Amino acid sequence: MDPATEAPRSSSDLAGQFYDALAPHYDAMTGFERRFEQERPFFQNLVDRCAIRRALDVGAGTGFHSLLLAQLGVQVTAVDVSSDMLEIARAHSASMGLSVTTLHASLLDFAAQVAVPQDAVVCMGNTLAHFTGHGERDVVLAQFHRALAPGGVLLVQTLNFDRIMKQETHLQNVKEAGGVRFVREYVPAGSLVDLRITRTATSEPAARQTTTSVRLAPVYAADLTLALSDAGFHHVQLHGSIALDAFAADASRDLVAICRRS
Fold first, then answer.
1. Tell me, what's the pLDDT at 172?
2. Mean pLDDT for each 10-residue chunk of the chain (262 residues)?
3. Taking the domains of the chain in order of start, what are their residue ranges?
4. Contacts with 12 (C-beta within 8 Å, 6 or more apart), sequence order
5. Angle separating helix axes 83-96 and 11-30, nearest 10 degrees
6. CATH superfamily name and code, 3-160+219-261
7. Contact 166/220 with Cβ under 8 angstroms?
8. Which residues lie below 8 Å from residue 21, measured CB to CB, with a gap of 6+?
9. Rounded distance, CA 230 to CA 21, Å?
10. Rounded CA gap, 70 and 44, in Å?
11. Per-residue model confidence (pLDDT) at position 4
């Protein structure tokens, strides 16, 4: 097909391409190993309080939250659009002696492939922000609703875009690991925002640099609350982190929503 006549790539396709390129570096950038100790108490509390035995980790990436849930005795399916990310998740699962099922699918239509209603859907990182097309985020939330059993719990976490979009600086995070410096920036593009990740190989004499970017649709607290309600979720609670502190639009680093399927 002539490139000029190709159909525009969907948000899901673009996210898959972005994370396939990022996959070899993702664990170093996010501090894969140290996060288990940091996040385990919260997820232990969630699993116990909500009696979670079966869960989906949607937008699972290299499988950190899938593996953490599996350590806590949960039967987990890791769902992601990036085949390269899921390949790493399977390698982690094998090396850690844990059982995690993987599902390579778009979040826009994955629920039809989930045969058994789930006790929980966990959607961490900026997964929801990748859906920039009109109505796509609502479609994804409807997929979450479809996959859950009645009364099932949904946990969604994004960065706090209420704060980010008001900042003068674009820089969000700088980290060095394994001889690579990772710089994350969120650069406004009208009503959207570009996530740019620049990798600099500091261990090399020439300090080779690579930038990968993808466009996001900011997730605002008020909009997410309304969208969750419209999708059939109730008892929506907003927090500023997975520690469940109060959400402050001008100060919290994250936006965390916990709710139940009607």
1. 86
2. 52 92 93 93 96 98 98 98 98 98 97 97 96 96 98 98 90 87 94 95 77 96 98 98 96 97 92
3. 3-160+219-261, 164-215
4. 81, 106, 107, 108, 130, 131
5. 40
6. Vaccinia Virus protein VP39 (3.40.50.150)
7. no
8. 212
9. 35
10. 11
11. 45
